């Protein structure tokens, strides 16, 4: 601080403009320590290198610490999980300190729609209680395990229980989950909880709650769900504090570039081939498709060109799905082909349900875009509809598993460093689109969302690659554009010169022709068998030998369901278009260096040298180690 002598020759402080500006900037950016959180929580936050709280954390944490009920809406990647975890953990630590001798009781229940999100929240609890010396115990009861094990874990009355509403209701009915001492109820991704058909379970839980429970609900989209949620959990009491950060988000500089490409149904495959082979998009990519069969169709098609990707859908065991997400975040895989099965339309269990669902989506689309007058597509089915769809599909596919009701990959899951979300199949509603694109442009990083849409005149022109959902792409796209405009986003057309891709068409046609329905079914069955083996039979072994799990066969390995054509992996110079393929500049979104995957390359190198658990047994083969000249001689 600057000082000068006054009239009495005494030094005194002066405030210059720079100091004032610096002070005002510091005051405008509060830290987590300014939120009066427990010092152990602040220490954990600092260890994760979180500098300042996000807007939703700045507003929600003080309200939650004051004991108020909160209903918060903020975009994906804005830090909603930490916004409810920190005040919840602070209250539990304060309660333990005041009680003196710790009393075992469950005081917090966190409800999430999917098992994947339950695992993610549990991981966050482990991270931010690292400096609590085991003072807070938490359990995730959404995992598939022996009921006796779950009962034993609940009998210890952990401080925090993480569960899906279905599992929480089940164990509440069996009196294994005790909610008499409950102080906090959190519902994460509240709109998705309702869309998954958990309303009956929520009704059961709401009637069992003791008086005075603090309720916190968060989601990326809260509109029509507000009335349902408040009717269930706030029938007569004071309404919750509603935090809607739409205005703050609209004022922020957009980090997500959104583009669409008008294309024929078969040309989707031509586009995705050229995007990866010409490296028009670099970095991690999540490809969203409409159903499980499309997962394997895209995977088999890309495999023929040497582009490797792993699939993610509700048919796979939950342990395999969690492992795929974990490895993707570590950088082992660069491409995930994810099936958003809840968007499958056309087979949801009868004309009556279809008409009802169609009317619901028409009302939603009309609210987003008043100028749209065409018929709207069906909305995403609920869990009951998914069950009906599974039963009908199992008649023709007896070897395939029933999809997991509690699966969801487009919402809530924290995928890290995703460069691009590629909507290979356009979602059915603007809400689903919002959740999908929220997997990129997270934590102040840039990102890109690229969506293919089929105009109505191109629908059913190529029946082998056609899906019924594409019939309404133009109408859904209009609703998406209107919704994004309201949120401050802009969906533009990607300037892609399709004429320059004509030299690739003969290669693309041969590769697509090889991906038959039989090949898709075989690949789907092989993948399921492999993942069931990895997940179920080796589960106990992996718990005892975690190194073996890390060295497990990769999820993006070739399926061998189509004939390998090595020459397709390389693009000859004569096929490259003159002047390159023009496209808009989406900024610096490349998040990986060029060349082969480093982690996979190191694993292969160590395995070849005989390092690692999988390679240790090679030297024990007596036929390989036989030396006729004697030990130590060559």
From TrEMBL:
It catalyses: ATP + H2O = ADP + phosphate + H(+). Coiled coil: none annotated. Residues 385-397 have a biased composition (Polar residues). A motif (Q motif) lies at residues 30-58. Its EC number is 3.6.4.13. One of its GO terms (molecular function) is ATP binding. Pfam families: DEAD, Helicase_C. This is RNA helicase. It comes from Salinomyces thailandicus.
């Amino acid at each position: 601080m600057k000082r000068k002598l006054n009239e009495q020759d005494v030094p005194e402080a002066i405030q210059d403009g720079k100091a004032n500006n610096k002070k005002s900037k510091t005051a405008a950016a509060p830290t987590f320590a300014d939120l009066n959180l427990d010092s152990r929580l602040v220490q954990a936050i600092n260890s994760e290198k979180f500098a300042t709280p996000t807007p939703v954390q700045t507003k929600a944490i003080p309200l939650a610490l004051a004991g108020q009920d909160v209903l918060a809406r903020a975009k994906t990647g804005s830090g909603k999980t930490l916004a409810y975890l920190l005040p919840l953990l602070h209250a539990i630590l304060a309660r333990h300190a005041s009680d003196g001798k710790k009393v075992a009781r469950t005081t917090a229940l966190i409800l999430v729609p999917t098992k994947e999100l339950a695992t993610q929240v549990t991981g966050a609890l482990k991270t931010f209680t690292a400096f609590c010396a085991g003072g807070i115990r938490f359990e995730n009861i959404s995992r598939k395990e022996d009921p006796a094990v779950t009962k034993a874990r609940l009998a210890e009355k952990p401080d925090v229980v993480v569960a899906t509403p279905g599992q929480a209701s089940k164990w509440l009915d069996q009196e294994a989950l005790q909610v008499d001492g409950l102080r906090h109820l959190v519902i994460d991704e509240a709109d998705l909880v309702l869309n998954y058909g958990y309303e009956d379970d929520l009704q059961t839980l709401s009637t069992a709650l003791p008086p005075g429970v603090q309720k916190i609900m968060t989601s990326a989209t809260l509109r029509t769900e507000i009335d349902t949620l408040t009717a269930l959990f706030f029938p007569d009491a004071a309404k919750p504090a509603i935090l809607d950060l739409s205005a703050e988000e609209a004022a922020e500089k957009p980090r997500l570039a959104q583009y669409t490409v008008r294309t024929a149904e078969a040309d989707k495959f031509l586009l995705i081939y050229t995007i990866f082979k010409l490296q028009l998009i670099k970095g991690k990519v999540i490809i969203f498709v409409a159903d499980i069969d499309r997962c394997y169709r895209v995977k088999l098609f890309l495999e023929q060109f040497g582009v490797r990707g792993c699939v993610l859908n509700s048919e796979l065991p939950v342990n395999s799905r969690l492992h795929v997400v974990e490895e993707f975040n570590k950088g082992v895989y660069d491409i995930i082909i994810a099936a958003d099965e809840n968007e499958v339309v056309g087979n949801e269990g009868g004309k009556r349900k279809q008409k009802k669902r169609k009317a619901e989506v028409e009302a939603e689309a009309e609210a987003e875009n008043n100028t749209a007058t065409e018929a709207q597509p069906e909305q995403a089915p609920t869990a009951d509809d998914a069950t009906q769809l599974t039963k009908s599909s199992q008649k023709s596919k007896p070897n395939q598993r029933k999809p997991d009701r509690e699966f969801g990959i487009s919402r809530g899951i924290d995928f890290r460093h995703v460069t691009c979300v590629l909507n290979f199949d356009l979602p059915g509603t603007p809400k689903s689109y919002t959740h999908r694109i929220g997997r990129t442009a997270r934590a102040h990083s840039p990102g890109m969302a690229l969506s293919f849409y089929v105009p109505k005149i191109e629908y059913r022109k190529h029946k082998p690659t056609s899906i019924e959902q594409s019939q309404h792409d133009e109408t859904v796209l209009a609703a998406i554009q209107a919704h994004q405009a309201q949120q401050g986003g802009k969906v533009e057309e990607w300037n892609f010169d399709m004429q320059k891709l004509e030299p690739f068409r003969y290669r693309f046609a041969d590769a697509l022709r090889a991906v038959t329905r039989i090949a898709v079914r075989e690949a789907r069955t092989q993948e399921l068998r492999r993942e069931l083996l990895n997940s179920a039979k080796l589960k106990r072994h992996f718990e005892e030998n975690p190194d073996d799990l890390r060295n497990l066969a990769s999820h993006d390995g070739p399926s061998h369901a189509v004939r390998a054509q090595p020459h397709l992996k390389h693009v000859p110079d004569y096929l490259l278009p003159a002047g390159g393929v023009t496209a808009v500049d989406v900024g610096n979104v490349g998040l990986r260096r060029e060349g082969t995957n480093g982690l996979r390359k190191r694993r292969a190198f160590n395995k070849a040298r005989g390092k690692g658990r999988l390679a240790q047994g090679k030297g024990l083969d007596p036929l390989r180690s036989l030396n006729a000249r004697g030990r130590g001689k060559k």
